[in-house]
Each structure stands twice: as structure tokens, then as C-alpha cells.
């Protein structure tokens, strides 16, 4: 199993990048005993102004073939943290790769969005993509702690 976050745009050094690195490191440590791999971050950037279609083409190149495709989208489903944990455990148990996709300023091209296995919403409000990275990495770490039975997550 591989776990990838495929995101449009480059996250420069700063508080968001620090938080993302911290959650990814915590997930990597906690996930080892559970058979969960570290999450790799694949950033794509279209410098030619090709819009969402060009971004989707770049994103498709970094999404492993056959991976469960999870798009982050305000129109998606609002999962609980235990529900996300159980989805992740399911992909692990099927030895299936998973790719979480975060779009750019205009969102995710409908061609890519429509073939997603799952669309996750962090509420109906639109968040900046770098904050979505922070929230997603925290939720992946939280899911890992739920699977580990550690007290980080409390209902
Ligand atoms: C600035 S938003 C783009 C919003 C754009 N209007 C759209 O239609 O998707 C950049 C990316 O952050 C993610 N995002 C923003 N708000 C979100 C939310 N509430 N839930 C899940 N993902 C969100 C999505 O991946 C989105 O493509």
C-alpha cells in the first residue's frame, strides 16, 4: 500500500508547512506498527495557465495506478474521524494504494472529481488549499491513532 497526497501548488516554508511535516512524521511513526506506510506529498504546478484541466493532467501523473482516489471537495461527504480511519484500514487490508487530491484556486477538474471513489468535505465553506493540507494530514494522523487505540482521539 502507498499513501499519497497529490496537491496543486507548492507549500513554502512557514507555519502550515511545519504543521504538515509534523503530522506526517507523527503518522509515519504511529503507522509503522499498523502496516500503514508514510504519506508522500506530491505537489504539482502548471505554470502555463492551463487551468484545472492542465492541473488534472499533472495530478493524474502522480496518482498511483489503481489507487483509491479521494478528492477533497467542499461538496463531498462529511465523514467522522473513525469513519476515515475505517476507510484507511479497509484500503490497507486490500493492499490498495490511496491518493488524496487537493485542488488549486479553481478546484479540481470535474473529469478527475467525477471518477473519485470518495469525496471528503471539511464543511461547506471553502478553505485555502494549504489549510486543507494541514487539516487532512491531522486527520490522517488522527485516523492512525484511532486504529492504534491510542487516547489522542476522544469522542
Ligand atoms: C481554494 S479551494 C478551491 C475552491 C473551488 N471553488 C472549488 O470549486 O473547489 C482549493 C482546494 O481546497 C480544497 N478544499 C477547500 N475547501 C474545502 C472543504 N470545505 N472541504 C474539502 N476540501 C476543501 C479542495 O480540494 C479545493 O480544490
Distance between the termini: 29 Å
Query: What hetero molecules are bound to the protein chains?
Result: S-adenosylmethionine
Spell out the CATH superfamily: SPOUT methyltransferase, trefoil knot domain
**CATH domain fold name:** Alpha/beta knot
Number of structurally distinct domains? 1
- Stretches where pLDDT is under 50 for at least 5 consecutive residues are none
As a percent range, the share of helical residues equals 40-55%
Report the portion of residues in β strands: 15-25%
| Beta-strand segment tally | 5
Strand neighbour order, sheet with most strands: 2-1-4-3-5
Largest sheet: 5 strands, parallel
Number of helices: 5
Radius of gyration: 15 Å
The H/E string reads: EHEHEHEHEH
From the 3D coordinates, which CATH architecture would you assign? 3-Layer(aba) Sandwich
The CATH class is identified as Alpha Beta
Basic shape: globular
Amino acid at each position: 500500500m502507498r499513501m499519497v497526497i497529490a496537491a496543486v501548488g507548492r507549500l513554502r516554508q512557514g507555519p502550515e508547512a511545519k504543521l504538515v511535516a509534523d503530522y506526517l512524521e507523527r503518522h509515519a511513526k504511529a503507522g509503522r506498527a499498523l502496516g500503514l506506510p508514510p504519506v508522500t506529498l506530491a505537489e504539482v504546478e502548471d505554470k502555463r495557465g492551463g487551468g484545472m484541466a492542465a492541473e488534472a493532467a499533472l495530478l493524474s501523473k502522480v496518482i498511483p495506478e489503481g489507487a483509491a482516489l479521494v478528492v477533497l471537495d467542499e461538496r463531498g461527504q462529511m465523514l467522522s474521524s473513525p469513519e476515515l480511519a475505517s476507510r484507511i484500514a479497509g484500503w490497507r487490508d486490500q493492499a490498495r494504494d490511496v491518493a488524496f487530491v487537493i485542488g488549486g484556486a479553481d478546484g479540481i477538474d470535474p473529469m478527475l472529481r467525477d471518477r473519485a471513489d470518495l469525496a471528503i468535505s471539511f464543511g461547506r465553506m471553502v478553505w485555502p488549499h494549504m489549510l486543507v493540507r494541514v487539516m487532512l494530514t491531522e486527520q490522517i494522523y488522527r485516523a492512525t491513532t484511532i486504529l492504534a487505540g491510542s487516547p489522542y482521539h476522544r469522542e
